[in-house]
Amino acid sequence: MNDLAKEIIDAHGGLDRWRGFETLTAHLLQGGALWAMKGQAGVLDDTNVTVDLRREHASHAPFDDADRKSSFSPDRVELQSREGELLDALPSPRASFHGHTLETPWNELQLAYFAGCAMWTYLNMPFLLANPGVESSEVAPWDEQGETWRRLRIRFPAEIATHSAEQTLYVDAQGLLKRHDYDVEIAGNTPGAHYVSDYVEVQGIKVPTRRRIYPRQPDGQPVTDLLVVSIDLDNIVLK
Predict the structure, then answer these.
(1) pLDDT tens digits for 187-222?
(2) In this structure, which of 20, 24, 190, 206 has its CB flanked by the most CB atoms within 10 Å?
(3) CB 142 within 8 A of CB 149
(4) Domains of the chain
(5) Percentage of the chain lying above the pLDDT 90 cut
């Protein structure tokens, strides 16, 4: 692992402690312009998410109503009843986004794929930096909000489903995440600047509870007058 990657992981609680858990569950309140743009306003405004920390899997419940939940993995996404009965499924889900732009509407299964992929990435970060095949290297620092943030460029292997193969983390002097950049490949490679803050400590792991995502301009600056996604977390449980 890159030295900065190790510093970031240590600042968030350390790899040994993280590997003692198998799942993370949190209550989410979500907003922003994306959901209505995609024709899915309100479906996941108030929900719970559970992400697996050993394999790529996530589930949102409720999914639009209390009797449904989602099941996301890279090769298949499902909608299930609360008891786990299969209601609908989409194999090879990423292929269904071929030709999409930011404005292209999603169906419910595509929403379940995006939400699962995104939250699995967010809630496993920065510990994903230690996964096999994940490459990282430090790049030039960045000045923002009156601070200088160190930056780590990441490249994910093809078997990890995430926003884009290449992403960038920004961290403060303590090694805590401040910002996370990526391009949303399934939405026309739309560039995003994702800010995290309001950390809490859960069983020795530092977790940000406030997330705000804005468009990112070619010079790296965010367009802060357009809130694409907001996510507020509470009731975080590691098991």
Answers:
(1) 999 999 999 999 999 999 999 999 999 999 999 999
(2) 24
(3) yes
(4) 3-238 (2.50.20.10)
(5) 99
pTM of the predicted structure, to 2 decimals: 0.97
- For 47, counting Cβ atoms within 10 Å of its Cβ (0-12 exposed, 13-18 middle, 19+ buried), the class is buried
Cα–Cα distance, 92 to 94 (Å, whole number): 6
Q: Which two tokens stand for residue 123?
A: 């809630």
Two structure tokens written together for 183: 């391009």
Tens of pLDDT, residue by residue over 1-32, are 899 999 999 999 999 999 999 999 999 999 99
Q: Are 58 and 49 in contact (CB under 8 A)?
A: yes
Q: What is the mean pLDDT of residues 176-186?
A: 98
Residue type for 203, please? Answer: Q
